[in-house]
């Protein structure tokens, strides 16, 4: 069935009775206005030199039948640091009088966006000019996001809010499968390792059944591309496909627990477009079927949980690391030495954000950092298959390995902490701390 026919079927379907929900959607372009340094890969040696697709901040504002209001902001960025996140959230909560728990920021983790704030700054060695460009872009970001939120608030209107789950299978466990072997392994049905191929879909339709907005997620790195052009990668292409198929609708993507998942094979724009189309087709397949309304009931919770780090290095150890021939290790050590001399010193834990939303029958967990797939699989197993679990939300401070991945080590379990500037790997209790907070917020015993 063609995408155009799917869209016609949806528009021709009779609209469900509206259930008291209101929703509004809007987008704001955040593509840098001039060449600046790109985020995601340490191997880059030059700033961006063009644009493949624009980057966007998008907002979905949802108002429940009881008046509780939720604001989701999605960003075509590799990450967002804690300070920048707090500035963006404060701009929204102050103007629109929302509690902190009602605002969520979700980045797509595209590796073809700009460096922002302090996120992954240990990975880059910027001269004064490029450092000023990063600072200026970061300073302007809260205002641009607020424009998107203002637009979504202005567009609020009655909707039927419905939900469903589709499937897309291009995500591959990158720890268990060599990239060059993936086509043959896929053909033979022998891919290894855990994956989460669910595609959660939240749709808002007006009284005539016209799609106003669609929010969808997938657990896979946005790393198809590594070129020097701004691009929202496969999530951006998926959103473009959906907005083309549903004129007037705004499509928003959130990244799931895909820290150990890659779109494979990769490296070409054609592949990024292809994965985007696969994902858009998965969303459209859900939209084309009857989707149960989410129903009444709404709640939100947010807490920053202290996640212990394994150890804090001594001054002597840091001085030695500062002479390391590995420039990234040395840069992290110099940063930590400066931090050591502040009144607070180097904290022994990190304030890790855990957020949950209940939207009728949908329970949505939003976790900070680059979360591995074990978390979504475990939480859905323990709390119900209908649970939605996002990563890369509110603060992308580091990889967040499960106990298994932490024991195994490797990039996701250990060495990536260097690029994020944290002093050590997480403590062994990291998974249990996160899961316990999720269970507390959703009222699970």
Question: Can you offer a commentary on this structure?
Answer:
With 445 residues, the protein is α/β, with parallel strands linked by helices. The chain has one domain (3-296, 353-407). Helices cover 34% and strands 24% of the residues. The chain contains 13 helices and 18 strands. The protein has helices spanning 3-12, 82-96, 128-154, 182-188, 233-245, 269-287, 315-321, 327-340, 373-383, 403-408, 410-415, 417-420, 430-442, and strands at residues 21-29, 50-51, 56-63, 69-75, 103-107, 157-167, 171-173, 198-205, 211-218, 229-230, 250-255, 261-263, 298-308, 349-359, 362-367, 370-371, 388-390, 399-400. The strands form 5 sheets. It has an 8-stranded mixed β-sheet with strand order 5-4-3-1-6-8-9-11. A 4-stranded mixed β-sheet has the order 13-14-15-17, covered by helices on one side. A hairpin with a 5-residue loop joins strand 8 (198-205) and strand 9 (211-218). Helix 1 (3-12) runs parallel beside helix 6 (269-287), helix 2 (82-96) packs parallel to helix 3 (128-154) and helix 7 (315-321) runs antiparallel to helix 8. The chain is globular, with a radius of gyration of 21 Å. Residues 1-17 have low confidence and may be disordered. This is Neutral/alkaline non-lysosomal ceramidase. Residues 1-17 form the signal peptide. It holds the Pfam family Ceramidase_alk. Residues 31-246 form the Neutral/alkaline non-lysosomal ceramidase N-terminal domain. Keywords: Signal.
